[in-house]
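assembly run, all chains below
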Amino acid sequence: MKKFVNDPKQYVPEMLTGIALANPTTLRYVPEYNLIMRADAPSDKKVSIIQGSGSGHEPAHVMIVGRGMLDAACPGDVFAAPPMDYVLETTKLLATPMGVLHIVNNYTGDRMAFDMGKEMAEAEGIRIETVIVDDDVSVKDSTWTVGRRGVAGNFFVIKAVGAASEQGADLDHLVDLAKRVNSVTRSMGMALTSGTVPAAGRPNFELGDDEMEMGVGIHGEPGRRREKLASANAIIDELLEAVASDLPFKSGDNVALMINGLGGTPISELYILYGRAHQQLEARGIKVQRNYVGSYCTSLDMAGCSLTLVRLDDDLVKLLDAPAEVAVRIF
Amino acid sequence: MKKFVNDPKQYVPEMLTGIALANPTTLRYVPEYNLIMRADAPSDKKVSIIQGSGSGHEPAHVMIVGRGMLDAACPGDVFAAPPMDYVLETTKLLATPMGVLHIVNNYTGDRMAFDMGKEMAEAEGIRIETVIVDDDVSVKDSTWTVGRRGVAGNFFVIKAVGAASEQGADLDHLVDLAKRVNSVTRSMGMALTSGTVPAAGRPNFELGDDEMEMGVGIHGEPGRRREKLASANAIIDELLEAVASDLPFKSGDNVALMINGLGGTPISELYILYGRAHQQLEARGIKVQRNYVGSYCTSLDMAGCSLTLVRLDDDLVKLLDAPAEVAVRIF
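ok done. output:
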């Protein structure tokens, strides 16, 4: 296993310790519940935004806690949903008079944990709403989900509700907004290699030296098909056609385009992919109004990418452009 | 070769096209000279800061062009110095009455290209100074250098002179500042895997499944020794001891700590490394005043890391905290 790891069981706590040490004034790590929260949360003047999922998708979600994004993230172990009592405790810690919004990617384990955590927290008098993200067009149902999977598109849902909640939006408004962003967001990914789960110590699945997996999930679960490795342009063209034809995105639309790396792909390659996607969208009469190139939602050290499109309107552009402060930064 | 690539010969131009399309108002791509420059450069009111090196180290340097950082970057092909006439043309395009500062990592090919480019540009009446970055403590001389190599520490030199040049500092001041930052900056890296040069189509060097290369260079050139894969903590402890004992960094020092990914390592693992390095520095009485965790200076898709320490003073902290706008961003 070619990874930086000590005891695989400590992979997640050691990562969270590192995040907390790097952000001593803005973030707080609560080891009892495997939780990263804003140091200044909760605030009576805003709804608390919480996301949780398995670990291994960093920076999602433990590194996107901060002003204008999440108020807290409660991750599980690598590729494992958070325990329901951790969801409960996180919700209790973040409870405010304005309520709590759970944002959950559509994976069965995550949904179960958040459903139970919500029910238990509601029994304690906390007002909670849940929005499910299901942006992945690759497969209708999957080995890990009923319905479409929730993948990198969750960034846009979180960015929008994070900005709106800073401006004082109430819980009903945020639920509508999150659903609206999810409804105009579509993604698809593909893998060149498998990631390696630290506790397993070997690749999560096998891919031949000349193979790729189109439509892969963020845990390496199967996509549409396995086939011979293709050129960067051919890969992007297929992802773009699948994503664009699904909503569909049409000539005259303004979009945000995200080229997301899956953990093991360097940014040089992501910009090669970005250039092609941008040009192909222009050829379709679709304007790229905002772009995001980087590793936003990963699958451990998997080499691969995903492409996300979001249909924009003026309100959504303002929310995307609003300030945000998170652990992942260059400067 | 498990990479996103079309024609390997077009790897660099396609990447630069992507960068330009993603930053249409702030950056300009000049294909004739393989050059990325600020759209608003040159300015009569500031010294132009130029860096060039082989490609394959992104975001260094083509993605750190922008306000408060580089005014232009002239990359060569992957792991190849830029042609001297490209250095000349870049310098001519960026020439200002206040002069031009070349920042060059200490690699023999880069130094030759910049020496010749400088000489030719001076013959045309342009005032130029050069500062060499040589922060890598791994080896005294190397297969690619006389003297120490210049690696991820170049970020701090560029950040400091980029900020100072925005404030109107003159060329002599910037030369002194760049030398001063380089003199308090030390780095060392190590590889878990080799990167793959697109034109070669196979790993740049061979490492066994249970081996690592301590002190590796950013082109995969040999370091101090090859040995059995160790734990994350053992790796950081060795890098930290080598770096800290070199300057040396001592109890009472304030430092910037960078944990840099080499391209194929996900940010989850970098934070595991960061946590250990932070704790070990604290145990030595050294305060981490600023931290940088991410992939700043890579070696294609190499899995690996480097650790950089910079001894800080109040002036340098202000320059590191000054605003900067570059292609690589999350929001």
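The first strand of chain A starts at residue 27 and ends at 30.

The two ends of chain A are 31 Å apart (CA to CA).

not gonna interpret more than that til we talk
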